[in-house]
């Protein structure tokens, strides 16, 4: 059996990144030795690349930070030993959240890591799993936290009796429990008096706080006084409006959603799972990974056979993991001149029978299936689009509004997602700018192109004005910028990328494999007008102190500063995004021009009257304003502000109905409701039995479950074999006597078909 894989595939420091302002991530291309990977003296850090080789994290921060190897054996997390006392860098809310005056990571005798800077990490003396030392290597990242914290439920660790995060956002409690409920974030969060908390749409803010026993600011406690022991079996929605992480990031929609699940005691017992083979995926030219539903027993066999039934590879699992990596080839010659191999993979127990679990008694059937294993013969390509978490295609933004002087081209290496690096080419990169009938050209010699960072190639046109290697390059770059020389002029652009500009690496490839060079491409994109400055049209502006909420009219007031504002752009709902969602196209917006005492136009005011069902819960929400322009077309840059003290305007919706008696029905709503007068509230419901109308006598809210309304009819009904339909409506005087706890009238015109209790 071949024993020298690690001599052929050297350990590579693949990527460094900031998880957030409290933790750094270092990733390797293969599993590494735990002892050397967790030795903090093997890690150095610097701002940019200044003095990085002499700036040991441990020497400058003795005993304050630690390195932890993760379960995958390839990823190392660097974070503070005392997470309440030390962070990587100070951010917007750091000193407010952490009770101990937090200190950032020191990089030398006087300097600290600060946000919005390029940071370089150097790794040395780390060994691979076979004990071979890696070469000293460096990677860089931006010290920016742009993602909101993630919320998780908690469970109690049987060994330590401490709360630990679950893999989802659910915290389970046993029915009649008289305990506090905990949720955890993956990073510290900021909770102030503006943050609102809801349980089943009831405001429980007075009973929720950061857990004082967790000084890192990651744990949220819902006190038992919130009524936990009175909850019924099942899921109960827990919502948070306004929580930020240390950088001020909020989740999409500004609302965190979690679940308190009430269960019977026996529901906490988890049944054993069988170690079924869930998937098999090729991860490199000579490797694949088998994923099991449950960890298999040590010694489980994975056998690879060719088309004639000959064994190519026989592997026994170790470590009782749910994933197992199998190497079936180490050199290109093993593909025998072909670009793909069709091998049968068999997974069995150690004795050749069923697959046994590492824990528990359940076994899985043997697995046998033919798989096609390919060589990576695809060159790196420009990433023109990606898919978000919901599967929606998102086009690449080559010039971002946050830095209009740079062109960033992301690349991807298929098939296995290896690292893309600068290649070898005799040709230059050419940038063409088309404005009207005029075309300008900028030629950038290949030698002046910087190395890729995180598989991204950056063309910094602003930097070329000062640092271009020739005066011609400096002049050509300057001609493409606005008068302030900080942004590209609005227009159409072409970036001609020559063959060989980038290449994949031997990462994830076999010995003697060929690296396929980039075939060349022309990237076309548009830079839109943002107001070029230097005497051009003054764009409209707004800011945090110019935006407020008018509770009397359920409206957002946005004041703009600037002359000659085009009213139609301020009245366009598409130019406003509330809590991550564009305003509905039929949102009514008024606009008024504002003048000073001398009659000079100073700006304007947009009054956005919110549609019903726009705001889910009381709280603070993020409003993004963009696209508002002058009559000459100069547009404002996008601005995000917080609209404070907004009120819930979402109506309760009838979701289902159950027949519970000869003259009774239970109606379930989307949130807790209240009834002003049971007799009058009866007029807000219509009950039809096979089309015949039956009169509702009264409507009452259930005594313990406030999402339920009990309807009592005036007459007994024979429901057998008949269709019963309930419709919500205004009464004969167009009044509503059923509302949510915030006073929003129930949504009318909703029809549901009733079921019979127990069926």
Walk me through this protein's architecture.
The protein has eight helices and 59 strands. The protein is mainly beta and 759 residues long. The longest helix is centred in the middle third of the chain and has 9 residues, at 471-479. α5 (461-467) packs antiparallel against α6 (471-479).
Quick overview:
The protein is mainly beta. Helices cover 5% and strands 39% of the residues. The strands form 18 sheets. The chain has a 5-stranded mixed β-sheet with strand order 11-20-18-14-15, with no helix packed on it.
- The backbone outline, from C-alpha atoms, is globular
Query: In percent, how helical is the residue content?
Result: under 10%
Sequence of strands across the biggest β-sheet: 11-20-18-14-15
Low-confidence stretches: 1-7, 531-537
What's the Cα radius of gyration?
Answer: 31 Å
**Strand runs, count:** 59
How many alpha or pi helices?
A: 8
Which range does the strand content fall in? Answer: 35-45%
Determine the structural class based on helices, strands and strand pairing.
Answer: mainly beta
Please outline the major beta sheet: 5 strands, mixed
Q: What is the average per-residue confidence, as pLDDT, rounded to a whole number?
A: 90
Spatial gap, N to C terminus: 63 Å
